[in-house]
Design brief:
Elements (H helix, E strand, L loop, with lengths): L11 H12 L9 H25 L7 H30 L12 H12 L1 H4 L3 H30 L9 H30 L11 H12 L8 H27 L2
Helix pairs in contact: 2-3, 3-6, 6-7, 7-8, 7-9
Length: 255
Amino acid sequence: IQIEGSGVFKGPVDCLMKTVRNEGFLGLYKGMASPLVGIAAVNSLLFWAYSLGKRLQTNSTSPTLGQVAIAGSGAGIVNSVLASPVELLKVRLQTQYSGAGNTFKGPIPLAKHLVQQFGARGIMWGFWSTVAREIPAYAGFYTGFEFAKRKFADSLTGGNVDKLGVLPLMASGSFAGICYWTASYPLDVIKSRVQNSPVPPKRLGGIIEAAQAISKEQGVKGFFRGYSPSIIRSIPAAGVTFVAYEFVMRGLNTI
């Protein structure tokens, strides 16, 4: 939806139906292998960089929301090193059509092709547009989580965030996911356009050119195409992510 012209899909449901009709149910899982393999490394790097960012600013176990936002932004920059190639392979695999010619069966054949065609920059295609997205995205992500978690703790546990159960943490994580996309969605659309362009960008990562093209073709609405399914996806995804993170950290702290 982000990449196709406005005349191709009328909305998320239309995209869903056409994908299943034309490519079968498994068409909904195109590009899955790249994030499936890379997500563990990406999230490990992300949360490590976030924790380091907090420690560099304060020794307090309860940093200010401003410090959380700074740490999140820094983590987003560091995370782009891994997130950019993972996103690149996912985007390009998701947007290829069966039987269209020059299609790739998975991320490894595609990665080899990009490197052969464009060298090292072929696999880091869209790096700067990924950085541009990750900075506000993870500032919103972590700040949203900490804000919601502290509010729940104030009302449920007398301010003790370590005593929060699964449901409050799930709700806090879901709120963080909404904050993530709300803070960065237009930049995500631009990143997808850049990473699906015919050749790797040269000037400023292709960000300005992609933004101009979207504005010219679809106006302001073009920067928010696909926003609703991203929000719907983020609610369970971010909720589970933070519940897992919080309970793993609690377990590690007892060792």
